[in-house]
């Protein structure tokens, strides 16, 4: 009996060890090179439109390669750069090394540490619209602002994109860095004389970037003062609003009802979960100022 129990424990440990998978987020240099072609490595089909990247994938136990759409404003033509790789947990370190070395196609790669949160993108809000604005870039391509303290943080964390949100009077920016976004977030939160608020950037997964099947959603303004406007290219099954603690506070099958309800919200951060009739689910972060 003791031998049988030991054998069963061994089987469980092995099964758990082999079932552990990880995910790596990558940012492409060019949003037309290295993009998913909808194939899968395990069935012998290329998973991107770049032969060099496919060769790297072929060397590892890859389960998928999907497009991610960050839940923030990335400027005009800012979409199509971010992807997620599903792989064996045993492959992560070596795969990251190979991806980082392939820098003609891969701009940045890191293991996902918080599910559903971007590894190198953040949002921040300035206290004063005149302090912390971009004035240029360094010779290395890092962002320079009119605030010395913020510049030092940007150099320390390799911040290379600083995109102002298009809605007026929001003082909101999106940062993209070659860094651990969670460490940068802590540093920015400590710089409270210039920065009022820092938040993670969530993403939604799209299994295909085919324009005929992709779910496109636009929520504006965000942050908002009165109410939001929702534009989506597919029929809605449900729209649900959650507070910051994850409690559902409103659910509807109507876009207009949700838009009107948003005007009753108090200032704060919320999550908007949208389910389309074809089964896709997306989560967007809302900020009411």
Automatic annotation (TrEMBL):
Secretion system C-terminal sorting domain sequence ranges: 219-287
Signal peptide: 1-17
Keyword annotations of the record: Signal
Protein name: T9SS type A sorting domain-containing protein
Keyword Signal: yes
């Amino acid at each position: 009996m003791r031998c049988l129990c030991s054998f069963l424990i061994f089987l469980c440990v092995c099964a758990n060890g082999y079932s552990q998978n990880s995910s790596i987020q990558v940012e492409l240099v060019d949003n037309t090179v290295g993009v998913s072609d909808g194939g899968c490595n395990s069935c012998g089909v290329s998973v991107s439109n770049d032969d060099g990247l496919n060769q790297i994938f072929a060397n590892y136990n890859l389960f998928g390669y999907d497009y991610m759409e960050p839940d923030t404003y990335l400027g005009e033509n800012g979409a199509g750069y971010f992807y997620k790789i599903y792989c064996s947990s045993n492959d992560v370190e070596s795969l990251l090394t190979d991806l980082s070395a392939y820098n003609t196609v891969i701009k940045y790669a890191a293991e996902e540490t918080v599910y559903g949160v971007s590894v190198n993108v953040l949002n921040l809000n300035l206290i004063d619209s005149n302090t912390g604005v971009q004035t240029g870039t360094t010779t290395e391509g890092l962002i320079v602002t009119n605030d010395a303290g913020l510049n030092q943080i940007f150099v320390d964390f390799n911040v290379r994109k600083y995109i102002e949100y298009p809605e007026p009077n929001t003082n909101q920016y999106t940062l993209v860095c070659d860094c651990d976004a969670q460490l940068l977030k802590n540093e920015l939160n400590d710089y409270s004389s210039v920065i009022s608020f820092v938040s993670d950037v969530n993403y939604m997964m799209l299994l295909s970037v085919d324009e005929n099947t992709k779910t496109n959603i636009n929520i504006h303004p965000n942050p908002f003062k009165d109410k939001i406007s929702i534009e989506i290219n597919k029929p809605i099954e449900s729209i649900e609003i959650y507070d910051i603690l994850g409690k559902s506070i409103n659910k509807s099958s109507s876009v207009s009802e949700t838009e009107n309800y948003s005007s009753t919200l108090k200032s704060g951060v919320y999550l908007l979960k949208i389910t389309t009739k074809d089964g896709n689910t997306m989560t967007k972060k809302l900020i009411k100022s």
